[in-house]
User: Fold this.
Amino acid sequence: MPIKLYKPTTPARRRTSVVDSSDLTKNKKREKQLCKSLKKYSGRNNQGRITVRHRGGGSKKIYRIIDFKRTKFDVQATVEAIEYDPNRNARIALIKYKDNTKSYILAAVDMKVNDTVMSSDKKIEAKNGNRMPLELIPQGSMVYNVEVEPNRGGKVARSAGTGIVLQNVEGKYAQLKIPSGEIKLFKKECFATIGQVSNPEAKLVRIGKAGRKRHMGIKPTVRGKAMNPVDHPHGGGEGKHPIGMKHPKTKWGKPSLGVKTRKKKWTDKLIIKRRKKRK
Assistant:
């Protein structure tokens, strides 16, 4: 899936790129019984107040129901199609079991039509797309769609190109290395899918123009420096001025950029090594 560039017929086209869609199954319509409508909230809560800024508008989307659990054990499924999902940057695969039931799953890198996949609570072949508990997966394998708690469905490593390395299994826990460099413990009963999430080139795409961002449902983000002092702590001054304070602040005066925001969580005890700091 290489990155596709356009001829520079306009200034926006010159800077725009997209992921090539040659990996998708042609002339395949979405599976209607595995879809539902998606209501828009535009970042507002039940009182109509904006709690998440810069959201609103965007193209209408139909949500594909993804099977993050895959609890149909020891039944072989065949990949019928690789499809585009407007709700995520990864590709999804439509699989069909031997009893003719269908479901959507996150597609792995190099997954193709007519490939077979299986989910099991016993040891099975460790190939792309197969799913089993962490304790049964060979050490050094790359996994994705990992459960944080057993039988709760995959929560970790679901974005395009993401993969976690299973380092070893000791006692009750499996030790996994996350792309950020953080090393974390997961219960060995947690399920994970072998492989790496499809569409790793998604991070290389250049949006190119403001209108494309609006189609995604993201509104403009104005810099604090460009505002007036009444609107933001960084506001005011003449020309390209510095923020004039020791560290950056949010619109409401709280420290930002590099400040720890993680509160005390029960998962703190499972972190062996913290993620690398940004330079």
Summary: The longest strand covers residues 77-83. The two ends are 31 Å apart (CA to CA). The mean pLDDT is 93.
